[in-house]
Structure formats: structure tokens, C-alpha cells
Amino acid sequence: MQKQTVSIFWFRRDLRLEDNVTLYHALQSKYPVIPLFIFDTGILNSLPKNDPRVGFIHVSLQKINTKLNSVGSSLLIKKGATIDVWEQLFQEFDISAVFFNKDYEPYAIKRDLAIVALAKEHNTLCFSFKDQVIFEEKEITKSDGLSYTIYTPYKNKWLERYKSMAPLVEYDTQNHFSSFHKNHFDFPNLQQIGFEESNIKVQPHNLAQITNYHETRDFPAMDSTSYLSPHLRFGTVSIRKLVNWAVQKNDVFLSELIWREFFMQILFSFPKVVSHNFKSAYDGVQWRNNEEDFKRWCTGTTGYPMVDAGMRQLNETGYMHNRVRMVVASFLCKHLLINWQWGEAYFAEKLLDYDLSANVGNWQWAAGTGCDAAPYFRVFNPDIQLKKFDEKGIYIRKWITEFDLGYCEPMVDHTFARDRAIATYKAGILK
């Protein structure tokens, strides 16, 4: 029996039908489009069975599938190593073209190159477009063509380029839904994929919270953040829509979106940052890496309220307020002299919005080892941070229920830890 000729659109970190660049192009191809998602065992095998991010992906795919059902189509869900899944797909279908949005992380780049090579063996074309960023790879560079490593000039160039294009085009995919392949693929439940429900959930995002972002963003008790970050990470919202909105509503929030792209281009241009200091001069810093100290930091029992509240919020919800993230990261690297890689790995395990480029970039910023980082002699005082940003103790009492009933003493004196950190850094920085 002759195999049906189709195009395939491969969902990855772009879990939406609206304003999806490569999907827009796929739906205008010659053949019916099968929408595909692969639960990649190369990633899943290292995750706990109740990982809430997998649950969020599954819920997001269900929403997509429901919309597809309304036009007589459905998602094709596969699980396995991506190369094996694609080998199987080439056996099942006559695939004219493969479409996917570009990804810039080292694992994704290697994966996509392998799939492109496989497609070539089957005489199949591959098309990929920019979708998760406004400017990618080498689009924002210095006059000599090299990547920026300082944020402010990168931001200025970014804004200059944006203004020449604004407003950004949002891609109208909905008028082309008739091009989806007419089918009814079975949609697996979470258990069939090998996972189970988590008590931790991704919250709906709220753009209304961003209007006064510049005034409220540093006060964790106000809970005035947008909860957008997991949605940006998995692409359930369009970055073009967000940027067009932020330009009109709040410059400070727009700056945060630009930071996101800055760290993405740092990761692309300097992939060593995943496992090495951006500034190699810091390779000589002698970290204490005390495992018992690290455990107390992880469990939120350091005796510093802002640190402990943040870690407990993370452990219980998968979220942590941005101001608090800076405080807990500085505390781990400076007060406890524990390598930033330990904290980065713990955040990678717990954060609902975990994004490799931002996580590595922000941790190296806090440690002083990254590009455009806080200087090594800048050591946040957690008590001063508490007085400035949670003066009434509302945030800390929410997460430290025993705060007024015999809360633990600080595990290390701030002045001692600060002096020790500065001396250790100074001695370790390679000339």
C-alpha cells in the first residue's frame, strides 16, 4: 500500500498554534501537515516521575489537541530517542518536508543536526525558522561582528534594531488550519508516557500585573509578577506578542525580555558557560563545597529568613521571586563559598521556568564569574535585603511558618562570611 505524502511540523518549546512562525510556513506547504510532539527520553530519563514540567507540557499539548480536533486533525504523540522516532516516522509516512522552530541550546543543536542529516538520507527537506526570540545568534553584534558580553550596549543595539522593525509581525496561522492532516491519533495520558500528576502546577500568566512592574517587582510579598516565565520557556505564549505589548506598557519589563535574549546569545556564542566559568580568571577560586551547608541551603534552614523563605517557596511551588533569587544565589556562592554549579543544578531540578541560558547566566552573574557579572566583592547582606524588600515580614512568614516560634540561628555570621568570600576570591583570581 502506498504511503501518504505529508509534511510534519515538530513542536518543541513552542507549544501553541497561534503566532507560531514555522507552523505558519508549514501550513502553506504543498502537502497536509501532521503536527508532532516527541517526549524525548534523552531528556525525560533523568527526571522524577512526578516532574511538574512534564505535566505542564502534557496539559499544553491537550489544549493544542482539542483545537486540532475541532478542525478534524490531532496531534501525533511519540516517546523515545528522537533519532529512533524519526527513523520510525520515515518508515510510516512519505515525508516531503520537516518543519521546526530553531533552538539554540547545545543539546538541541546537536539533536537537530542529526535529524537534518537523517532527513537528507531520505531525500526530505528540512525548514527551520526563528520563533522563540526576536533577535537570534549573530543578529545583534558589535561593529566588529563579535558578540556583546556586556548587557547595556547589547540592549541599546537591540532596541535600535527593534525600532526599525516595530511593530513586529504576528503570524496568522488560524486562517490556514484547513491544511492540517485529517486524522485521529490517540492522545496518551500522562501515565502512558511514564509520568504521574504533580501537586506543583504552573500558574496562568497575567499580563495585567506588568503595568506597574517597575514599582512592584522587588517586593515578593506583593506577588505582583506575571507568572509568564514558564509560559515563555515552553512557548505557550508568543515572544512577538509580549514584546509588542511591553514596548507600549513597561520599559523595565521589556528590559527583562532583552536580558533573556542576551543570555541566549551568550550561550550560543560561548557554550562553555554551561560547565565552565565565563571568566576563566575565576577558575582558581577555591570553593568550600561543604555538603552539609549545601543541604541546609536547599532545605531553607540557613537561619537567614530571606534565603530560607525563597528556598521553601521554590521547593513547594517551583517558583521563586526574582529579587529573592539574587539573594539566595549570592548567599550560596559568597557566604557559603559553594560553586555556582551546585546551585544551578538544584534550580534546574526545581524551577518550573528552568531555562538553561538564563539559569547559567544568572548564576554566573551572582557568583561573579559570568559576563557583565556582579563584582566578586559585592556580597548581598540578606538582612538588609529583608528590611528593604519585606520590611513587615509578610513574605518570610508565609513560607517560614515557625518564624515567630523559635526560628533557627544564622548558620554563619554575615561579616565573617563576607570577609572570607572577598579574601578567597581575591586569592583565587588568576592573574
**Mean pLDDT score:** 95
Instruction: Provide the spatial order of strands within the biggest beta sheet.
Output: 3-2-1-4-5
Major sheet size, sense and barrel closure: 5 strands, parallel
**Could you tell me how far the N terminus lies from the C terminus, measured between alpha carbons in angstroms?**
70 Å
Please mark out the parts with pLDDT under 50 across 5 or more consecutive residues, or reply none. Answer: none
Query: Could you tell me the strand content as a percent range?
Result: 5-15%
Overall shape: it is globular
- Reported CATH architecture of the largest domain: Orthogonal Bundle
Radius of gyration: 23 Å
Write the H/E string, N to C.
EHEHHEHEHEHHHHHHHHHHHHHH
CATH topology of the largest domain: DNA Cyclobutane Dipyrimidine Photolyase, subunit A, domain 3
Number of strands: 5
Task: Give me the oligomer status.
Answer: single chain
GO molecular function: deoxyribodipyrimidine photo-lyase activity
Organism: Flavobacterium granuli
Cofactor: (6R)-5,10-methylene-5,6,7,8-tetrahydrofolate; FAD
Protein name: Deoxyribodipyrimidine photo-lyase
Task: Describe what this molecule looks like in 3D.
The protein has 431 residues and is α/β, with parallel strands linked by helices. It folds into 3 domains: 128 residues, HUPs (Rossmann fold); 98 residues, Serine Threonine Protein Phosphatase 5, Tetratricopeptide repeat; 155 residues, DNA Cyclobutane Dipyrimidine Photolyase, subunit A, domain 3 (Orthogonal Bundle). It is 46% helix and 8% strand. It contains 19 helices and 5 strands. A 5-stranded parallel β-sheet has the order 3-2-1-4-5. Helix 10 packs across helix 11, helix 11 crosses helix 16 and helix 13 crosses helix 14. The longest helix is centred in the middle third of the chain and has 19 residues. This is Deoxyribodipyrimidine photo-lyase. It is an enzyme of class 4 (lyase). InterPro entries: Crypto/Photolyase_FAD-like_sf, Crypto/Photolyase_N_sf, Cryptochr/Photolyase_FAD-bd, Cryptochrome/DNA_photolyase_1, DNA_photolyase_1_CS_C, DNA_photolyase_N, Rossmann-like_a/b/a_fold.
